[in-house]
Design goal:
With 259 residues, the chain is of the alpha/beta class. It is 49% helix and 17% strand. The longest helix has 19 residues.
Length: 259
Amino acid sequence: MTYKSLLVEVENNIATITINRPPVNPLNTQVFNELSEVFSKLDEEDDVRAIILTGSGEKAFVAGADISEMAGLDLVGINKMNKVSRVVFTQIENSTKPVIAALNGMALGGGLELALVCDLRISTEKAKFAFPEVGLGIIPGGGGTQRLPKIVGQGIAKELLYFGEMFDAVRALDLGIVNKVVPAEEVMPVAKEWASKLAQKPPVALQMVKQAVNAGSNTDIESGLIIEAACFGNAFSTEDRKEGLTAFVEKRKPIYTGR
């Protein structure tokens, strides 16, 4: 897979997508379109069991949207760009594969919104985070005002969104925005370790867990339990369920095929 703004590598059932617009990897329409294309392709690849999303260099994962592109757009143009971003972020959030964000540096504005749609987030201890949009006279438009409160609660979300101040990886970990903080040189190795573990698990079961959690978080408990029951049934009907239970009884490591 060859792209202008992305580097894509598939190895050992793990796809690694690198946003390659150094030094700070800003998001523009081209990046959004390429992300949409690559995630569509990877969703159809049975050999890909997990996806890592990261940025090039050591300075930034993604330091927001491309302001130079935004500044030249009128209302019609910015609404079109904003729609593209929302669509691809939702696409990544609902990918059939588990997605790990390897946060190699700053995640600001749209970059933080992109990180939030990933399932798991591993951050360098040097990373900085912020939603600086209000200081520019705008607000987050890629789902930040909706996804952030579900992670940190309304009060903390409003603090981060209103003031737009930088916070470090330690606070991001405390707030549940990231799952793990490691030294810079360990971000990709840990991401690959996690992805490798996920790649050995039954793909349909992982997909059903993701679907149940994502859909359930947007509804009431009774509706969520109905969604969970449907996902449970889908997982239970697979050959991998038979393999998992048989391997448990036979005291051996299961081998999952995704069927």
